[in-house]
Specification:
Largest sheet: 6 strands, antiparallel
Radius of gyration: 23 Å
Structural class: alpha+beta
Strand order of the largest sheet: 5-4-3-2-1-6
Helix content: 25-40%
Order of helices and strands: HEEEEEHHE
Strand content: 25-35%
Distance between the termini: 65 Å
Length: 207
């Protein structure tokens, strides 16, 4: 029995040692890959801003973080990238907005001109069903069935099934509603962003 106890203790010690070593290796690998991953995300965001604004030679003049409550009282965060062209002309802004889709969070980047019309959009993250909800990356683009480009969300965009003017993705009404909600919320955050970085009911953090 004594020999068994000794073996058990040894096994526990060995397993603990292995766990510590593996944890150290994983932490080291994570440290090595963290930089490249962040660089890749930054490049994807920069490319996304150019895409949704429709201009390749563009500068992010200011970045604002805006917090607003949705209809259910939940606080949501929006990141607004105020943009200018090479001549310093105001082009509008690209806005990050997130809503809950069918499979999880759906994060979009929407470009608005200075008047608030939609210039373009791209999906940054989603967990929608491949072949159905995932079609949102194309469905609402210019010339497609649910085309929202050039629209002004002053009157919130809604799907035709709800009496609105936008055709929902076939068999993916929930995703379509979530997408349009993210766009409408992005517009609301953008229009609530004054030049001085202050908004009546919300405090914005300028980076």
């Amino acid at each position: 029995m004594k020999k068994l106890e000794s073996s058990l203790v040894n096994m526990v010690l060995v397993l603990t040692g292995v766990a510590v070593i593996m944890g150290g290796i994983l932490a080291y690998v994570n440290h090595l890959t963290e930089g490249p991953i962040n660089d890749q995300k930054a490049k994807a965001l920069a490319d996304g801003i150019k895409s949704v604004m429709g201009v390749s030679d563009i500068t992010v003049a200011k970045t604002d973080t805006v917090k607003q409550n949705d209809a259910k009282g939940k606080e949501l965060t929006y990141i607004i990238y105020q943009t200018k062209d090479a001549q310093g002309k105001d082009l509008g802004a690209a806005v990050e907005s997130t809503s809950g889709g069918f499979g999880g969070d759906l994060k979009v980047l929407v470009g608005f001109d200075p008047e608030g019309k939609i210039l373009g959009y791209t999906l940054l993250e989603h967990a929608e069903t491949p072949g159905l909800g995932a079609k949102a990356d194309k469905w609402f683009q210019k010339g497609e069935k649910g085309d929202i480009i050039g629209k002004d969300p002053k009157e919130p965009l809604t799907v035709s099934k709800d009496g609105g003017q936008v055709d929902a993705i076939t068999a993916s009404t929930i995703t379509s509603r979530a997408f349009l909600l993210a766009v409408n919320n992005a517009y609301s955050a953008y229009k609530a962003t004054p030049v001085d970085g202050e908004s009546g009911a919300t405090k914005q953090e300028e980076n």
